[in-house]
Amino acid sequence: MSTEIALFQVVQRLEKCLEHREMALGAFLDIEGAFDNTSFKTIITAAKESGLEETCCRWIRYMLESRLVHTSLMGSNLTAKVKGGCPQGEVLSPLLWKLVADRLLTATNDLGFNTFGFGFDDIVIIVQGKFVHTVREIMQKALNVVAKWAVKEGLHISPQKTAIVPLTNLGATLDSKLNWNQHLQKIIRKVQTTFALVRRTCSRNWGLGVNVKFNISTTSLNTSLKHIASNLDDLKIASHRITDVENMIR
User: Is the pTM of this model over 0.85?
Assistant: First the structure.
């Protein structure tokens, strides 16, 4: 499954949550060193379970287990046999890892969890429901399944790259091109309304000073834009739009 298709399916799931007035919780997981740490046994088992012919499975096993690595430093040479992982830079490696990752996606989806694969080693789990404690319990069960799978396959979930996000509370607006224009325009209109209300609190001879009014408006804009941008690592885009609106307010 491509990243675009997976993203489309996630958006579809979130749209259904909004339609049914449910909350959604997303778990974004990264499998640590997926290409380097996957055992040969795991790869071969995944290949067999996917329905590959026995001849292909034997060929893959031979290709993996017969690899040698060579290194030299200051006249000293060392040769070692590779004990695990997918060959780096080989066109077959993404397919081999996909066979392994598909086992996790199948296991979690068969249990009723909405699980999607992004890229090669990123997994997204979406849980939806009416009640917070129910959503939390279901998500914990899904994470337990992933943790057991990782231990069984000798892999690890990166804690530094794992995030649990309440997706329906981000306040983001997605369009068909997956850019921020529509969302930013919505925020800008909101700030313009705030600025218009602030202007009514004073005149040339009384009320709030110009600097105070400016600070109120820009603070409102910064908070709104950076809230969503911080979740999606897009502060650069938000900063450009902040500058545009600040110039308009001045």
Answer: no
Query: 3-state SS string over the chain?
Result: CCHHHHHHHHHHHHHHHHHCCCEEEEEEEEEECHHHHCCHHHHHHHHHHCCCCHHHHHHHHHHHHCCEEEEEECCEEEEEECCCCCCCCCCCHHHHHHHHHHHHHHHHHHCCCEEEEECCCEEEEEEEECCHHHHHHHHHHHHHHHHHHHHHCCCEECCCCCEEEEHHHCCCCCCCCCCCHHHHHHHHHHHHHHHHHHHCCECCCCECCHHHHHHHHHHHHHHHHHHHHHHHCCHHHHHHHHHHHHHHHC
Give the integer Cα–Cα distance in Å for 220 and 192.
10
**164 pLDDT above the threshold of 70:** yes
Q: Give the angle subtended at the CA of 103 by the CAs of 99 and 109, to the nearest 5°.
A: 135
The residue that leads in pLDDT, 49 or 242, is: 49
How many other β-carbons are positioned within 10 Å of the β-carbon of residue 123? 21
Task: Specify whether the CB–CB gap between 18 and 133 falls below 8 A.
Answer: no
Query: Would you state the pLDDT for residue 198?
Result: 67
**What average pLDDT score do residues 21-41 get?**
85
Q: What distance lies between CA 88 and its chain's CA centroid? A: 23
The gap from C-alpha 16 to its chain's centroid, in whole angstroms, comes to 19
Q: Which amino acid is at 221?
A: L
